[in-house]
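tool=predict chain=A
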Amino acid sequence: MKQPIPTNLILGFLGVGKTTAILDLLSQRPEGEVWAVLVNEFGEVGIDGALLEREGAFVREIPGGCMCCVAGLPMQIGLNQLIHKSKPDRLLIEPTGLGHPSQILDTLTSEHYRDVLALGPVICLVDPRRLEDARVRENVQFRDQVAASDILVANKTDVCTAEQIAAFDQWAEALEPARRAVFHTRFGRLAPQWLEGNTDLPQVTTPHAHHHHGQRADGETPVDINEQPWQQVTNQGQGHVSVGWKIHPELRLDENTLMAMAMDDRLARFKAVVHCLEGWRAVNVADGALSVIATEARDMSRVEVIAAGALDAQVLDRQLRAAAGLAD
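tool=predict ok
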């Protein structure tokens, strides 16, 4: 294990492709090196962590809100356990796209980690298409993620127009202070050399502009999937609501019914790793784009939906139960 451990934050707004980017980085790690990932999701069921583990990395999840809500003791406990278990050569941290980075950076640069972590460049992914939406440009989480970054990366350029990419470049060039580097990429491909060096620790635009996430609506402690084969959990905050499910792996879902649910235009995100009738599938929907790939078997199926505004959890539960052949 390198000491201090090279550490990078991978930031980005909801659905920009952070998990895909980290998967790509893990596939490029030097032979013999151990990498660890601390991942935080707005939802409660840990889908990103399940996907990342397939690349052989040590993964520790902090579910249920944004990492900055738990940047004190809960984050430190998870981080300490991850370091102790994996003894990594590099640490990657993926906060939720609905979080603010300032408190995370404060924790990582505190005296507790001064000799343990070497904080490298903070990378922020941006979808150039989203810059056309004033609500995104003015969103405090988005602004703070950009402001906290050393390196900006325009992702998904394969689905952007030349005008959208040019608008991104113009926007990035106007940022003050200037970013250390600005890159274009597609499919979340990041160059490993972008991780090298040290962060400049830029000041975020509104370091105290933070609204804590709400408490779990269910308030229940998770139970073993064999004891309760169908579990639903919810979370809310930052103007968004999530509904998630953990489902026993022996319950198999109809893929077509699941796809119809995934493409509901009210949803900001749909993520799932599920046992379908045709086999295990990893499903992702962001900005109306659907991705479905075959994946290996898991200990349970996991489904998560996120929306801006209210969701009827009971209606969604009935839809998913119908996909599993459990309709009333």
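Residues 205-220 have pLDDT under 50 and may be disordered. The first strand starts at residue 5 and ends at 12.
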